[in-house]
Amino acid sequence: MRRFEGARAGRGFIALACMLLCLPMLAGCHRTPDEDQVRQAISAAADAARNNDADGVLDQVSKDFIGNEGDFDHHDLQRLLALRAFRHDSTGVLVGPVSVKWQGERLVATFTLTLTGGPSDSLLPDHAAVYAMTTAWRREGSHWRCYSADWSNNAR
Fold first, then answer.
1. In the predicted model, is pLDDT for residue 120 greater than 80?
2. CA-to-CA distance for 93 and 90, rounded, in angstroms?
3. How many Å apart are CA 145 and CA 122, to the nearest integer?
4. Is residue 51 helix, strand or coil?
5. Residue 69 has what DSSP assignment?
6. Does residue 113 contact residue 92 with C-beta atoms inside 8 Å?
7. Whose CA is closest to 93, among 102, 84, 101, 82?
8. How large is the average pLDDT for residues 1-8?
9. How many angstroms separate the Cα of 138 from the Cα of each of 18, 128, 142?
10. What pLDDT was estimated at residue 26?
11. Handedness of CA 75, 77, 81, 84 (dihedral sign)
């Protein structure tokens, strides 16, 4: 009888060990929803802009990015960010609540964006503006990247 109890306890230990070993694999199977990945990319771009990190912003944008129906492209964005970093301007960035909706295989995110700016040694910003943003996102490899954005400073 003791032998049977020992074998039973051994199988229980093996089952418990297998379950504990599988937990990390099961946790690794969890994938962040696409909508949340876009929200995270918007937040990462805002953080990078606050820190005058042009590359951090551009990491979230497609190479063929186009803004305001062709008035602004990836190269224009790169130049603007480089200029702000070169001047050591302080950029305040506040992103309002982000709404994300599917459009076919792409995602569209809308939010308000408040930007403030001026010299980094200034107590108060020289200027501020609030923009109504509509951004379009597509999956590029394992990342969501913004390929189109439209904005107006008539946000209320």
1. no
2. 10
3. 33
4. coil
5. G
6. no
7. 84
8. 51
9. 39, 30, 10
10. 47
11. positive
Integer Cα distance of 104 and 106 in angstroms: 6
Express each pLDDT in 52-75 by its tens digit. Answer: 899 999 999 999 999 998 999 999
Given a contact cutoff of 8 angstroms between Cβ atoms, the answer to whether 41 and 59 are in contact is no
* 147 vs 76: CA distance, rounded Å: 14
For residues 154 and 13, the model is more confident at 154
Q: Are strands 143-152 and 61-67 parallel, antiparallel or unpaired?
A: parallel
Query: 27: left (phi > 0), else alpha (psi -120 to 50), else beta?
Result: alpha
Answer for the pair 150, 67: CB distance below 8 angstroms, yes or no: yes
Cα-based distances in Å from 52 to 46, 48, 143: 10, 6, 22
- Detail the DSSP E strand segments found in 44-153: 61-67, 72-73, 89-95, 99-103, 106-119, 127-140, 143-152
SS3 (DSSP) at 128: strand
Length in residues, the chain: 156
